[in-house]
Amino acid sequence: MDERKITEALAVSPQIQLEDVASLKRRGYRSLICNRPDGEGADQPSHEEMAEAARAAGLEFRYLPVTPGVVTDETADDFGDALTELPGPVFAYCRTGTRSATLWSLNAAKSMPVSEILGATRAAGYDMNGVARRISNGGKTPTDTGDAKYDVVIVGAGAAGIAVAASLRSRKPDLDVAVIDPADVHYYQPGWTMVGGGIFHPEDTAKTMGSLIPRGVHWIKAAVAAFEAENNAIILDGCRVVKYDRLVVCPGLKLDWAKVDGLVDTLGRNGVTSNYRYDLAPYTWQLVTEMKEGRALFTQPPMPIKCAGAPQKAMYLSADAWKRAGVLDHMDIHFCNAGGVLFGVKDYVPALETYIEKYGVSLDFFHNLIAVDGPSKTAVFEVRKPDETPERVEMEFDMLHAVPPQVAPDFIRVSPLADAAGWVDVDQETLRHKSFDNIWSLGDVMNAPNAKTAAAARKQAPVVADNIVADIEGRAPDACYDGYGSCPLTVERGKIVLAEFGYGGALKPSFPRVLLDGTKPTRRAWWLKERLLPPIYWKAMLRGKEWMAKPEKLKVPST
Question: What span, in angstroms and rounded, lies between the C-alpha atoms of 138 and 140?
């Protein structure tokens, strides 16, 4: 018997036998639903035999037969009624369990988000993407899909999405492009570190989405529910369907605040803050300026995360402020990193270690934040050091800068576009999907092994645009992304270690070393971060001007 739990109240399975019924009773089930019509196969007892076995075992029984491939709205409603009327937990079965899982999905659509339904069934081994359109429509068969169709559809209007839309339009102005994103505001997220350090004003990092969508690009202000990649279709919340010839997927990633127990309840108070949120970055600076003594914890979760240097950037700028205020000697600063190194590219570590020593920071490697008690100002870490038994460690704090675990958005993780870890599965050079030739991805959501930064998206957008145009014109995609990412590490107010690197940690400096040595803290790098990068972002990257971002060409193997 292959028992697959979908919820605590329901499990489904492939065909069971008469002798399995008593076992179900012992496992705690109280009701049995048969969704397989009699006579489908030689392996199945009749529903009358199963009903008799259920009565003998003390189980309630209901027969709701479903013809393969014909799950009607009425049957789904009947299944929902059965779940309400029968004592639980309930065990349902058909030939493979798929019909039972489908009935549950359609009924759950009345009260659960599509992504949660797809996630629950996928965890049980059932792919419900084929009925995602019905799930999105409240479990009912759509009668009017209201399809719209575009040459290129882009999911996500963050840095990556708007940049690639602008790059596409600059190459082919007549291209019919649509961007899907429900947000009203677009944020310059690299600026939040500077807000938390008292350098930028928060309002300087936000603009209305409508002011940034490139001229001639359609903005569909909606959330994506699911993908029908085989049909070149996207299902929006509310069951609207958008069709495409080519698709670009770049919705960013999900900050999983709830993964740290108690964190959501205390963010923005009790000394708990994070530069990873627009509304909290000003609180970081407030805490820094008010704090004259005590313990400050700066955490970093397991990789991958957005801008791997950001957790320690907050620490350096805070420590520098305390030094300038003359209170650094009264501060106990800890960098609690779930990983085992200060920075992933070794060439930049010596400069960073100098500042760790300068500020008296304690490095707590292999410390992963798992819980926060705000009122008692206590953080709990799971410590997993190599070759040692894992343990839990509590640390008191006066200030906690928390960085949450980060995952792909729910609607991506449960989609046919995702790899086993939930990220969009692409070729790391062309950024084309490995299974669907008319789909590309860039930005934080795809699985190429590069740093997830806005600087990376700036380099990726022209690659994707070039390769889509090549595909439209019948040529093989030939633009190549080399893994470039940049992390301006703000080690003190006025100086930055400008980390620029590609795949495998190879250094990728934008300037000659005599002009700017990125492995050392420099004022020129600070000037770049403070003065040049914001206008480059707003006025170049998001407008299709590819300054210092022209894509390289794929190297063709010699024959």
Answer: 6
